[in-house]
Amino acid sequence: MITSLEGSWCLILGASSGMGLATAHELAREGVNILGVHFDTTDGQEKAAVAREEMRTHGVQAHFFNANAASARTREELLPRFAELTGGAGVRILVHSLAFGTLLPFVAPETEPGVTSRQMNMTLDVMAHSLVYWTQDLFTAGLLREGAKVYAMTSGGGARVMPSYGAVSAAKAALESHVRQLALELAPSGIAVNALRAGVTPTPSMERIPDSDRLARHARGLNPHRRLTRPEDVAEAISLLSRTDSSWITGNVIGVDGGENLTFTPNDPT
Question: To 10 degrees, the CA torsion angle through 108, 215, 152, 119?
């Protein structure tokens, strides 16, 4: 059954920029109350505060928490607060949009650093494993119920390679695997879990990728729409997919890329 999202709650991990922020704005316009977790410096916190107030102009509740979303302590501290804020209604939509990882080669020249065990573990923990831990704790706390939707942000990098991207690529591949496993285990509870594979999207995390300008030019030229994916494209997909109580669309990697994945070949710089 297609239902209204008005009055429901969405938890966004990575809510202060990129796809997470765009999703928060989109859902707030639809009447969804927002819980946002982000990890920012003073400047980032100020921008998040401005965004929060903008969301509240739509008549919804919006609460942002500046904390490390990959920390078990953060989950322990925030889950009781989320239960209180939602009034027991739980979280209808969970968006995992954490993009923090190392961009170093596996095998580096003698004069340059290569990825370390600590950096590799951190990248996979933040960008992949934390999805499992948040889903576990929300479900155990009774905050994920029948009809809930869980979304993880993946990319074409989970199946392709390019210099210095190995740890992030591994994290995306692991994230997609986690999505399939969670979909299997949560299906009896009527909870859908999917990964959204955005195309090349101008976000702060993309800007940190070496040679990202060249990647953007290449993607724009080959995309059938002749433009890059925008964070708002992903936000609209989340809004659309969340309007059903059904969990029948689950365990998928759903392309939100304007057909970009149709035109890229294994030899392209992605």
Answer: 20
What are 244-259's pLDDT values in tens digits?
999 999 999 999 999 9
Provide DSSP, the chain.
-B---TT-EEEEES-SSHHHHHHHHHHHHTT-EEEEEE---HHHHHHHHHHHHHHHTTT--EEEEES-TT-HHHHHHHHHHHHHHTTT---SEEEE---------SS--TTS----HHHHHHHHIIIIIHHHHHHHHHHHTT-S-TT-EEEEEEEGGGT---TT-HHHHHHHHHHHHHHHHHHHHHGGGT-EEEEEEE-S---HHHHTSTTHHHHHHHHHHHSTTSS---HHHHHHHHHHHTTBS---S-S-EEEESTTHHHH--TTS--
Whole-number Å distance between alpha carbons of 47 and 219: 29
**With a threshold of 0.85, does the pTM exceed it?**
yes
pLDDT at position 270 is 45
Higher pLDDT, 25 or 110: 25
Q: What gap in Å lies between CA 8 and CA 149, rounded to an integer?
A: 12
